[in-house]
Amino acid sequence: MADIALVFGWQPDIMYNMTIDELAEWREQARIRNNPDE
Predict the structure, then answer these.
(1) Measured between alpha carbons, how far is 34 from 12 in angstroms, rounded to an integer?
(2) pTM value?
(3) Which end of the chain is less crowded, N or C, counting CB atoms within 10 A of the terminal residue's CB?
(4) What is the dihedral of CA 4, 33, 20, 9, to 10 degrees?
(5) Cβ–Cβ under 8 Å, residues 26 and 19
(6) Which contacts qualify for 2-6: CB closer than 8 Å, 24 or more apart?
(7) pLDDT tens for residues 2-24?
């Protein structure tokens, strides 16, 4: 969750109600945004 918070600037309370699948999808989006050349 820290990587999502860092990239998108979200507070933890925004992510608490997300499912594992949602968190995984947002984590992938954070990875892409943070490393666009990969």
Answers:
(1) 19
(2) 0.80
(3) C
(4) 20
(5) no
(6) 3/27, 3/30, 3/31, 3/34, 4/30, 6/30, 6/34
(7) 999 999 999 999 999 999 999 99
Domain count, the chain: 1
Tokens in use for 7?
A: 């990239």
> Is 1 within 8 Å of 12 (Cβ atoms)?
yes
Amino acid at 23: L
Place 38 in a pLDDT band, splitting at 50, 70 and 90.
low
What residues make up the domain containing 21? 2-34
